Amino acid sequence: MNPRTIWVVFRKEVLDIIRDRRAVIFMVIMPLFLIPALMYLMSMFTIGSAKGIAERNSVVAVVGAEDAPALIDYLRNEERQRFNPPVESDLNIFAIEQQSGVNAFIEILDDAPVAGEEGQIRKLIDSKQLDAVLVIPPDFQGQLQDHDKGLNLRIDYLSTSERSEKAFERLRRSLTTYRQRVVAGRLENASLQASIIDPFETAGQDMATGQERAGEIFGRILPYMIILMTFNGAMFPAINMAAGEKEQKTLETLLASPASRIELVTGKFLVIVMTGVISSVLALVGLYYGFSMGEIGRQLREVMTLSIDTQTILLAVLLVVPLAFVFAGILLTISVFARSYREAQGYMGPLTILIILPAFASFLPGVELNFTLSLIPVVNVSLVLKKVLAGQGFEVMHYYALTFVSTLVIAGIAIWLCARMFKNENAIFKV
Amino acid sequence: MISVKNLIKIFKDRKRGEIRAVDNVSFSCESGKIFGLLGPNGAGKTTTLRIVSTTMKPTSGSIEVDGLDVLKKPSLVRAKIGFLTGNTGLYQRLTAREVITYFGQLNGMDRKSIGPRIAEIAKWLDMEDFLGTKCSKLSSGMQQKVNIARTIVHDPPVMVFDEPTVGLDILAARSIVDFINFCKNQGKCIIFSTHIMREAERLCDEVAIIHNGRLFAQGTVDSLKQVAGENEFEDAFVKIVGEK
């Protein structure tokens, strides 16, 4: 093996790729711009529709309103003025209500077009004339004053409809406040203090640091994207370098040059590995900036610190390199085997699915690294990357090492397969 | 310069079983001479030439190029050969100069010596105007020239042409024929396969007729005509192939 020859092959292939529009799109444009833009738009859309529902008044009909005039009056007037959903402390980037000062409220229809029959209520909610129906039992107000037990307020709603669900939520919240007011009145009448029934409050304090919370969100998406982009970036160069050479009818003359097969394979191989790694690093950069953009970026920055340090990046890239070797080996083998560019492309669909599924491991909740999972290709990289990106790379160093070594072994097998395929006369000269 | 002895190449095919693509073929060829390998399609010409240029391995037999065994020193053998086939393509995204430079470098030349060499070849072949043009934008005649330049950039002592004129128009084919003669005048050893009798008649100092992998006759065109008792070489060819 002459390093100079490998370098000659390497340089030529890099030149060829830079001028291949398709490869550049998959290697640079897609990870750096397209994916972040798409994810950005998608989350904007989700937020947009959540916001739409939050801003809309809930239309509610009341059955038996005449039996609870005080309650209806409360809902109509007082509650409407102070209606402001309580702030939820959980990290929820889609909890728009708390930020945007939405002043949607419950709108109570003046004449209830409902006889209290379930089928009819259902029909009205389905046809969007109503969001929910509050059913008040007969003589509600009177029995409330008599401290009667077993009073029941029923809310008819549809859990499968978002606006109906929202109406239910708002009604329940308002009724809870009303109940507290009734309780407070009774306590006052009995000359008791409010603290008698509210001896203590509970408050949660989140110990997670901003980086940990960022890791939790990013840790799910990033490993998957990194793995997918490594594969995508390597795909077109790999197809081009063998199947493409067959199609351009340059392979035979290349093999007739003094360069040995192993030098040719090594040169091509290294370029594929490089494009895979470049693509995954660009995906990291793209997603990082994609998530820092606009409304979502603003909200994210409020709840978490986005700091990917050098150590994290080094650990991540160091793991991606052997994975890129595995992909390069598989892809180049298929590329040599295929008769034409098109045939090679045909193999990519099923292969992509084969890569995407195990890479999805990082998305699954509750899947934790263990010895067995550290040996399953792609799954292990996905799970270890998740830990690394959450800043916990050093805590799982033994699994990291296991994943690194097992991926390296598979890379070795893939390279061996590839070299064999390159020496296979039937594959090389297949027409 | 080239010597092939008892060359056998067997392909294994799942459907058709064993195929003897080349069956006990021997020939040799000298510097400054053109040796023609004649035969119909599927005769075994391409396989033989691939084995000579080491891209395929023989099942048995011994092949030497300039005294080097192709099995033992394949890289050195390839460095001595310029290889051109009729359907050789070019890297479409590279310029003519980049393609020629790449093959020069693969042949161990350094950039300093490739530059003047390309200038020299470009002058011969009248291709100075399009050296900086991407191959995808070149006409087929121009691509032909780039291919020729790529083949001789390292000035190899042996030239292997596998049906070099296949699919070319008259003018392009003519320029290939001229190029083969040019190589002969430079004292190179040339081995050349074709199924076009007129080309062989015009170019070759010696020819071998192969069919179904076997060598049927070998000698000068005139001697083969005499053996067959025919005035036209094509008739002689048909008679020789058909007799056995």
Concise description?
By secondary structure, chain A is mainly alpha-helical. Chain A is built from 16 helices and four strands.
**Quantity of strands of chain B, as a count:** 10
Q: Note poorly predicted spans of chain B.
A: none
Q: How many DSSP E strands of chain A? A: 4
Radius of gyration of chain B: 18 Å
Rg of chain A is 31 Å
How much of the polypeptide of chain B forms β-strand, as a percent range?
25-35%
- Major β-sheet profile of chain B: 6 strands, mixed
- The oligomeric state is heterodimer
Kindly report the greatest chain-chain contact and the residue count on each side: A-B, 24 and 33 residues
Q: How helix-rich are the residues of chain A, as a percent range?
A: 55-70%
Structural class of chain A: mainly alpha
Tell me the span between the first and last alpha carbons of chain B. Answer: 30 Å
**Overall number of domains of chain B:** 2
The helix tally of chain A amounts to 16
Helix content of chain B: 25-40%
Structural description of this entry:
The complex is a heterodimer of chains A (431) and B (244). By secondary structure, chain A is mainly alpha-helical. Chain A has two domains: 3-44 and 209-428, no CATH class; 56-196, 3-Layer(aba) Sandwich (D-Maltodextrin-Binding Protein, domain 2), CATH 3.40.190. Chain A has helices at 3-18, 21-55, 69-82, 97-100, 118-126, 140-145, 162-189, 210-248, 251-255, 261-292, 294-303, 310-337, 341-359, 379-389, 397-423, 425-428, and strands at residues 58-63, 106-108, 132-135, 154-156. A four-stranded mixed sheet of chain A has the order 2-1-3-4. In chain A, helix 12 runs antiparallel to helix 14 (379-389). The two termini of chain A are 29 Å apart. Residues 83-102 of chain A have low confidence and may be disordered. Chain B has 244 residues and is an alpha/beta fold. Chain B is built from nine helices and ten strands. A six-stranded mixed sheet of chain B has the order 6-7-8-3-9-10, sandwiched between helices. Chain B has a four-stranded antiparallel sheet with strand order 2-1-4-5. In chain B, strand 1 and strand 2 form a beta hairpin. The longest helix of chain B is centred in the C-terminal third of the chain and has 16 residues, at 170-185. Chain B starts with a strand and ends with a helix. The A-B interface holds A 5, 8-9, 12, 15-16, 19-20, 248-250, 252-260, 425-426, 428-429 and B 11, 50, 53-57, 74-76, 78-79, 81, 83-85, 87-94, 98, 102-103, 105-108, 150, 160.
